[in-house]
Amino acid sequence: MDRALIQSGVVFEYEQSDNWINKGLFRLKDNFYHSYSSRGIHLENSSEYHLVVQNHFISIEDFLNKYNLSLGSEIVDIFEQIEDYYSYILKPDGFLPTIGDSSRKKINNKNKKYTSLLDLDAGIAILQSKNNSNPKRSTWMSFVCGYSTLTHKHLDDLSITLFYNGDDIFVDSGKHSYGSSPARGYVRSAKAHNTIVINDKNYKLPKPKIAKDKITITDYASNQIYYFVKGRNFAYEGVSIERSLIFFKPDVCIILDRIMNGQSQKVSQIFNLGPSTSVIQKDINHTIIKAPNSHIHIEQLNGADELVVHKGNKDKPYAVISEQFSKLTETHQLEYIVNGDKVFFLTVIRMGKDNDRVSNIQFDTMSNILALEVDGKSISIVM
């Protein structure tokens, strides 16, 4: 609409032509600044829509240049930041993660970076560790918590995804379609994401202006040994959920989930597996899953009441993902269940077949200190 308004002002020599042009430019610039974070990440909660809107603004600038107009150097200079986001958000195999309303899409980017990224406005952290001998088999994790707009937003707060050794281990659900179909309802739901779910229900997303008081990334740290990120989701009525994640580079992840209920309720910790990943040992305290190139061990150090392995069902959408528009792929979902009013999961994810790098793990609930040994060295971390 704004482009049409500007073109009308250029082509037709009316008294108000300059006003049309200025009006169109003002609205385009205003839209741009509302669309991106200060790091140049598109705020509509989707890696694919970052690409769509980037192409949109590039085409607008090209259009304006034909008439000796421009969005201005302040905006055009941010184009480089927008492009740089792919260096982080792309998985090591070159595919965008299916976060929010995103399909599985490969992008040619030769400047892949393997450091971390944090953006509180976009509500995302990227944690990585490079495999120097084979970069495509590097470790890549995402952590989603928070938002600045409800557009394309899923109930995915506190959710993670994991890519390791060339394999999708834990995945997001994708968009499937728009509208109100059962499949669309499922892929947007909390249970379709790798997070904490209360009583098998969804939570209500607060308006963005008040969301940061309830749903946000609260802490972040980075050093040579590990990445640490922590977030909270207080959007379930009468329930507070906090998730702390420590990624010991390159192949161990520890998750501490703390849930405070006003009453005893069912609490589920969900892991949605990649389509090529299967369960080979079903045990509450030690589950083993296998991907084409790797084994993953999931240990529940605080135990759980029950482990349910859900098999994919397209007819009544469950344990499915959507990598392409309007198509479902069946996979498996792990659901660890605890009933209580004060619940915590202490979960260790070991990547690789015989991975004992991290040992003697102990968590003190009074001091909130996690004590452990990493490669023989003792470490204490306040969670």
Automatic annotation (TrEMBL):
Location of this chain's protein in the cell: Periplasm
Gene Ontology cellular component annotations, sorted alphabetically: periplasmic space
Domain Heparinase II/III-like C-terminal: 121-301
UniProt GO MF annotations: lyase activity
Keywords per UniProt: Lyase, Periplasm, Signal
Origin: domain of life: Bacteria
Domain (Heparin-sulfate lyase N-terminal): residue spans on this chain: 4-118
Signal recorded as keyword: yes
A Pfam family matched in the record: Hepar_II_III_C
Gene3D superfamilies reported in the protein's UniProt record: 2.70.98.70, Chondroitin AC/alginate lyase
PANTHER family: HEPARIN-SULFATE LYASE (PTHR39210)
Name by which UniProt lists this protein: Alginate lyase family protein
Organism ancestry: Bacteria, Bacillati, Bacillota, Bacilli, Bacillales
